[in-house]
Every structure is written in structure tokens, then in C-alpha cells.
Amino acid sequence: MRHRPAMFVGTHRQSFLVTSALFVALCVLFPSVAPAQNPNPRVLPPNSAPLGRTYGEWSALWVQWAWGTTTADNPVLDTTGANCAVGQSERVWFLAGTAGPDPVQRSCSVPAGRALFFPVANGFCAGDGFPDGFAGERRCATEFASQLSNFSAEVDGVPIKGLGASLSASNYRALSPEFALILGDDNVFGAPAGTYAPGAADGVYLMLAPLSRGEHVIHLHADFTGTSAVVDVTYFLTVGN
Q: Cα–Cα–Cα angle for 116, 227, 149, nearest 5°?
């Protein structure tokens, strides 16, 4: 089902126009990479295919997870971590950025053995208002994502290298394949319920190998070009059973 034109910008602001056995398994699913090859040993390389999907394919799933919720359950609008577990899978957990100008801190419990996937900064568009279809959607997503810059991410106080100062300069940039965004009646955009397609996303993303059991801190930051607004979120994670 198609609707009047709609565009959305992702993680950060939105604009709407219309055991041992377990250890062995994890080594197979998330193989380690020698430090000489990977400047960020905790991060799965952007040209890899974690669990059989590329970074771009994971980014499409992230958009569907982050925005295909009710307003009350939305993880991007969450200011405490109360919605961390909403819609999560058994193998990869998604983390969200922020949608407002103020820094946010979230406390979350994550099951052991889950990889973590999240954008440092991204944009997406979905709808049917572009005469050239998906190509137009992708240009739209890139335009939004290009408004974000000066990316930074830290895992337990260790900065992630290679994020770059801009979208085009980032080693962790990923473009999504075509996807559909399904919105219910109570969605954050106030849009009519239905399926918005095609969709496209562009941004800077990270996939972390499963963290060890215990306490971890992840901090993400990006600036909006030409404004004082920022994306800033800190996750206090407890990794356990």
C-alpha cells in the first residue's frame, strides 16, 4: 500500500513532509580481526557481513526497528533506557541516538552474547514522492545524513578510530538497500498508518562484537552543521544473562 509522499530523517531529528558452546558459536558468528587489520578490535569491519548481513542491510533493519514503533515505545525518544528492550532480536541488539538537542543518558540491561549495532549519525527517507523512486530516496537520505558531522564514539572510554569528520570521509559509512517502513496509528511522525516504500538510509554505523559480562559505557556524539544542535547519548549497559 502506498501513501502520499513522506520523508523522514533518522536517528537524530525527523522531518515529515506528507557458555563454552556459546563461546564457540560466537567465534564463528563474530570472528576476531587482528589489530593490524582492524584499528578498532571491538568493532566488526564495515566491509564484513555480521550474521550474514552487510552493514547496509543492518541499517535498513535498524530504521524499521527505531521508527516502526508507537510513540510511547520509541527508543529514539527514550530519555532513560526504559525502551531498550523493545523489539530486540536474539542475536543483535540495536542502540538508538537522540531526537532532540539535549544530551540523553540511558541505562539498559543487555543479554550476554548479543552484538550491538547502531548509527553514530544517519538519515533516511521513505515514501512515494520521488519520480525516480529509490534513487531519489537515497539522495534524500544522503542529504539529511550530510548535515551531521564531527562524529565521535567511545566504548568504555576508548575512542573509535576512523569515524571521520563528515559523512563522505567516514570509514564506517553505509548505504541501505531498499526497504519498507511500516507505521501504525500512533507513530512519532503523526503520519497515516501504512507502509511507506521505497525507503533508503545513509549514515555512519558501528557493529560491536558481543561485550563481556559486566558494566560498559558507550558514548555517541555528532554535530548538526550550521546549528547549535547536537546528537549526544550515553548508554550505561549491564551485560548479563
A: 40
